[in-house]
Amino acid sequence: MFPEAIARRRAAFDEAKHLSDWQVHSAHIAAGAIGTVVSEFQTGPVYVPMPTGSGKTVGAIWGIIDQVRDDPALRVCFLTPYKEAVEKVHSTLTQYLGQDQVEGTTTSTLSS
């Protein structure tokens, strides 16, 4: 089962080619978590507590793409304290879904 899931994700997403099998599997779990929340609850945050480098951001991208392709009217907000992660998610979502489906900004303003 796991080898088939890993092969499917590698075939669907160029970003998976540089990841280890473990990272692809972890990202697949993160993507599934997003799908579960969207399909069952339709609202609320998804927290994916996994180690650094495990594939959380890639999984978030895959999960968002899967869900938006199924429901183009769906709105998703991706938050992270890391600008690089926001930029990666924004550019990859734009690549797979198109500029007309991806809104937002890659910068933030913090007030004290």
Descriptive overview:
The protein contains four helices and no strands. It is mainly α and 112 residues long. The chain has one domain. Helix 3 runs parallel beside helix 4. The longest helix is centred in the N-terminal third of the chain and has 20 residues, at 21-40. It starts with a helix and ends in a 15-residue tail after the last helix. The mean pLDDT is 77.
Treating each run of at least 4 consecutive H or I residues as one helix, how many helices? 4
The total domain count is 1
Strand content: under 5%
Main beta sheet: strand number and arrangement?
none
Parts with pLDDT < 50 across at least 5 consecutive residues: none
The percent of residues in helical segments reads 40-55%
Report the radius of gyration as a whole number of Å: 14 Å
Q: Can you write the helix and strand succession as a string?
A: HHHH
